[in-house]
Amino acid sequence: MEEQIQQFATVRGIITELLGSPKVVDDLLEKSIYLISVGSNDLVEYALTHSPSDSKQFIANLTQAYAAHLTVRKNNILNLYNLGARKFAIIGIPPIGCCPAARVFNDTGGCVEVLNDGARLFYKSMQSLLIEFSLLFKGFKYSLGNTYAMTMNVIDNPRGNGFKEVIAACCGNGTTDCVVGVNLCANRGDFLFWDKFHPTEKASKLAALTLVFGEGDEYVTPMNFSSLAMIG
C-alpha cells in the first residue's frame, strides 16, 4: 500500500502543475472518494505460516499498518490524509475461508474457520479505528463495507440471492487454476466463485450495488458509498 500512496503523491504533484492552484487541488481531492480493499492476501499468507493463536496480534499489526497509511504519520511514511484525502470507502475482508482454494484444506469440504475468524476480527478492528479517526481528524469521513456478512448471506441463502452453486468455482471447479483447457461451467451466472479465489461478475455486481446503494448498517456503515460521495 505504501507504493500506491507514493504514486498518489506523484499524481497529486502532476495535477497541481496542470491546474496551477494548490487550493483547487485540495478542494478536488477532499471531494474525491478513496476506495481501499486490502488485507485478504496478507491474512492468507499469515495463516499458512503461523499458529492460529498469533492471529490477534497479526490483526492488530495489520490495523496499525492501515492507520499509518490513512492518517497517522510514522517513520516519515506518507499517508492519504496528509495528501488531501478526506472521504474513505473501505472494503473489509470477505470470508476467505469459504473460497474453493481454502475448502480443499478442510477434510469435510467446509470453510476454514481460522481464516474466517481473522476476517471477522479485522472488520471489528477497522470499525473501531475508523470511528476513532472520524472523531480525531477534521473532515475525516468513511464508509466501511462488510463483505464478510454480504458473502455469508449468499452462501447461507444462495437461491434467495440468485445463485445455485456457492462452493465450487465456475472455472476449474476450484481445485485447479483457471487456465486454458480446464473445466468451465455452462452458466457462470449460477456461481458465486469464478475461480478458486475470486467471485464471478454477477457476485461482484451484487456486492457493488450493496456497497453503493445499500440501506441500513448490516452491510455498509455508517453510510453507503453513494451517501459518502454526496458529502461536501
Provide a descriptive summary of the structure in words.
The structure is a single chain. This protein is α/β, with parallel strands linked by helices. Helices cover 48% and strands 10% of the residues. It contains 9 helices and 6 strands; from the N terminus they run ααβααβααβαββαβα. It has helices spanning 2-19, 22-31, 40-49, 55-70, 100-103, 113-136, 147-156, 201-213, 225-230; strands at residues 33-36, 87-91, 141-145, 165-169, 191-193, 220-221. The strands form 2 sheets. Strands 1-2-3-6 form a 4-stranded mixed sheet. A two-stranded parallel sheet has the order 4-5. α3 packs across α6 (113-136). It is globular. The two termini are 27 Å apart.
Name the descriptors.
232 residues; alpha/beta; 4-stranded mixed sheet; two-stranded parallel sheet; 9 helices; 48% helix
Radius of gyration: 19 Å
Total beta strand runs = 6
**Shape assignment:** globular
> Quick check: average pLDDT?
91
Structural class: alpha/beta
Note the gap between the termini: 27 Å
